[in-house]
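Extended Data, panel c. Modelled sequence:
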Amino acid sequence: MPAHRHPTVQDQVALAEIDLTGELMIAAAAASEDRLSTDRIDELLRVAGPPRGDGADREAPDTP
């Protein structure tokens, strides 16, 4: 039998995802073009951009 959650418990991650989805929907509805650009979507989702690819954002491997 599944455990019941208290009715006032909120999933903050789910609420943030719902908020961002709403922002995307509003922007898409207001856009004059057929689709939102990748840059506009990244701006709405507050994404900094693609990884640099030089490995600087990854941990260095353990070497003896």
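The helical segments are 12-30, 38-44. This feature is highlighted in the accompanying rendering.
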